Amino acid sequence: xxxxxxLAAVYVSDAQYNRNIxxxxxxxxxxxxxxxxxxVLHIVVYAVIVVDLALxxxxxxxxxxxxxxxxxxxxxxxxxxxVVRLVHYAKVISRERxxxxxxxxxxxxxxxxxLTDIVIYGSLKATGYTAVRWSRVLRPLLLxxxxxxxxxxxxxxxxxxxxxxxxxxxxLFMFSLLMFSxxxxxxxGKKGLTTTDGxxxxxxxxxxxxxxxxxxxxxxxxxIIMPAYNSSVYFAVFFIIYVLINTYIFMSVFLAVxxxxxxxxxxxxxxxxxxxxxxxMARAFGVLQEWKGGEGPxxxxxxxxxxxxxxxxxxxxxxxxxxxxxxxxxxEGCIGKVAFVQLADLLNxxxxxxxxxxxxxxxSLPSLYLSSPSQLVCRMVRxxxxxxxxxxxxxxxxxxxxxxxxxxxxxxxxxxxxxLYFLEILLKLYTxxxxxxxxxxxxxxxxxxxxxxxxxxxxxxxxxxxxSGGYTSRQILDIVFILRVLRxxxxxxxxxRFRAIINTLVRIGPTILTFGQLIVVVYYIFAMVGMELFxxxxxxxxxxxxxxxxxxxxxxxxxxxxxxxxxxxxxxxNDVVSSFILLLELTVVNQWHDILxxx
Amino acid sequence: xxxxxxLAAVYVSDAQYNRNIxxxxxxxxxxxxxxxxxxVLHIVVYAVIVVDLALxxxxxxxxxxxxxxxxxxxxxxxxxxxVVRLVHYAKVISRERxxxxxxxxxxxxxxxxxLTDIVIYGSLKATGYTAVRWSRVLRPLLLxxxxxxxxxxxxxxxxxxxxxxxxxxxxLFMFSLLMFSxxxxxxxGKKGLTTTDGxxxxxxxxxxxxxxxxxxxxxxxxxIIMPAYNSSVYFAVFFIIYVLINTYIFMSVFLAVxxxxxxxxxxxxxxxxxxxxxxxMARAFGVLQEWKGGEGPxxxxxxxxxxxxxxxxxxxxxxxxxxxxxxxxxxEGCIGKVAFVQLADLLNxxxxxxxxxxxxxxxSLPSLYLSSPSQLVCRMVRxxxxxxxxxxxxxxxxxxxxxxxxxxxxxxxxxxxxxLYFLEILLKLYTxxxxxxxxxxxxxxxxxxxxxxxxxxxxxxxxxxxxSGGYTSRQILDIVFILRVLRxxxxxxxxxRFRAIINTLVRIGPTILTFGQLIVVVYYIFAMVGMELFxxxxxxxxxxxxxxxxxxxxxxxxxxxxxxxxxxxxxxxNDVVSSFILLLELTVVNQWHDILxxx
Lengths: 599, 599
Ligand code: NA
Description:
mainly alpha; homodimer; Helix Hairpins; 4 domains; three-stranded antiparallel sheet; Four Helix Bundle (Hemerythrin (Met), subunit A); 70% helix; binds sodium ion
């Protein structure tokens, strides 16, 4: 029946996309489940999460301040969207499973806590008290616990799994740090050494522990070493042994432990995934199976065709027939269970169909397109010297970009380069079939066209603004500059080896994206806590400001500190953007001890 | 015959120690070859190399100056030793093979060039000219090219093998760096920004390239970012993207390429080694084989026993019989080729023979040792609370070390701790069989005893010196302090997990040693070149010095430089020890741009 096919199709597509939801098998639930998995709803969920997280930009302490009623309204809409999504999910799976899943409980808790917080915050603010929006820390939990956060959860699980081993390495590292600090205290504490600033050097145990810890990250090298080294060459040996053991050996062991654990865990996860997918495919087979004389249960080609059309409506007939011939390689008109369970993997394979379709101009204007001058152009464009010529033009362009902008010759040359790049794209579209040129796998064609067209538009806008208003818009000009330089990246595609490296990078893109989300989650939580604790503690003053507080970032505690001297005032927790940049700087490690001291 | 057994034994021990020398098979050559591989000669060769390399400490620019005739004499002795070793090698292998091996040619060239350099340098110095000892750069080549440098050559080969791939990643990285620099020039060059020192910010292309290159190593973060970030938050995004792409993504790709290449190459090397070893064992079999009724060639147990006794004279009878029973598992009294070729691997296996030998006191004084008070002591020492008690003593000791030394109570407590530790060792020796206690695998027992005994000796010397001369020797006191802290490390052994991590570290020890040699080779070459180019350019002045040059390290070029301000004067190429420390600091990466500018 139709319902059977729907059920089987759901099983197959669950296996195809590694979904692990134990939906109810009633026709109604299946229809709701299909809707639940619709790509539009996935996008809506992610959009709602982005809006919810981005609210931090507009809430106090804000980058762009909005009134409280506006941000609260937006947040309520977001929370309502999550409630709707959760109710939808509850209708798909059994009640028992719904309440047993900690993900759902977590989402419900976050929603309830957020509502409580909004009410408390609103009433406190209305009565003039100070209040803290503490529930903002919980927002990233939504990103982790939604159905779509499968990859992110896996990443967190793998980290949690490696924690015990990492902890032991860390404890051993701490032990080594404490031992070395004790040794440093005994060796240098009584020598009366001083740092360049004239402070006592290595006299307090806790300070030594901190300094040596910073040395592991190499952030205060070689300043921390110099006083001892100046006193005796042999003391340098102490620091060398310290850095060798704690920076190099420990970090190697640390990385090895993390890597090995991650690999081991990932292998186990993949094994479970394969088993679950096989199970789903077996169920789909069970729904569609028929009995054929003595050979056990099979699925006929007709059922199989109908199933594949349901699972992947946009599949071409040729592609579907190819898949069938792979499954039914004995040409029996039906397949057994073993061949059937491969279907999900087969559908996931990318089949590049090379169609040598004629150019549309060849069909519409054959006499013109096939004439010998036109064919000469086509041969020219296909020639490898055409590529070399444009690589050369790019190099010349790079030199021109480096030269002074205000020279009118160079400013006008930009138009020539733009015209040349545009001509190149037009010539290629004339020579190659446009649909093939802009097919999904032609990354560089897309990149090229996008950059050149945007550069053309931005340059035109820029000159229009300039000639009408008489002034140059700084933002537009910056964009024009960036686009101009990005155009040069195209040269990478000409070199085979570079293309291979870039392709590798593109392939690991999804993994990077998952870890990007993970980092956003962690940063967001830290930023929210940091903002509540430190907002307004440090102020940034414009270069033109004559405020006397400018000397110490508006915080008397920072008078004469390195922090103020190095002009680090903008590294603060005053809004969410500053917080993120600060956290990134701390991750990059250098001078972090100076930045950290401001708190 | 005796010669046959000698030949077979040489093949087996070559397979056992992975030697790949195609020696002549005459009895005379074999005897010379056995001598060539004697462990005493290996140690002599390494000692000669260490002396030769260490000459840099005594040659101009010297740490400890010695007259030229003395260093030249030592160097000539070293070179003579290498000549003798090479002549010995030439007598072991065929003349043709000797001259075809680039390693031998390289050693001969180094020796000849060194002699030439010594003659030129000596005559120039004698006639009062300035001269450069350029051949010192070649000394590390001896370490690479001697027969014993097999592991080191393998490490260099694996690096050379990965070079092409690394080069392409590096080129792509350079391209990215140049692109970002161009973008930075266009974005910031005309904005009139200044650094904290008031210098123009990002106006010259080459300076931008250098600054952004330094940023990849994170050494100038966040200082280089601040001017742009202070001007606009959006510019911080530029730097974030830059660091993400160039520090994280490129470094990951870089490490992945190096690791994969290294692994691939190592696998190939190991495969070749296994093949070569099997070949050697097959030859040994060919020498000793006998024909036994219809079963093909075999080696009898008698021949096998004689061979094993030749290869490993110190092997116990029990161990040898165990190996034979593993090889001849059907108990036929002779083994075929397949079983025979395993011999080298079997000999490499560590067999721990657990002998429950009675304690020597039990045999000499049984009535006393087996008396009930004596047995109570033994049971007490074996109890786990004995370990806990001493862990607790160590912790208390750690606190005492951290306290002030000049308090007489604490100074005397040190004697109590020493006595306790000494008592612990004596008790353990009383309870456990001393030979088992000090067996080769009991790393911690050795460590403990060594540290406690040295601490005892050093403390006694220290108090003798103090009470006789009335003053404390700083060097002896430093050693006492270090030994005192090292004693605390013992606590690591009590925690199972820590022991596992330490054991892993001990196991990768040989690999670390090989890479250590590799780094010494590279550093030595750089240090020699650096010393000839920069010696005396920067001078270090004592803190008490009143010389006006002290302000700028004796080099007017460094007036007002950060280098002089941070008191980095001791980071120079004035002698080989300073050079090594400087190169290590540059490897540790931080502030390297400041250090580098001094040249
Ligand atoms: Na650093």
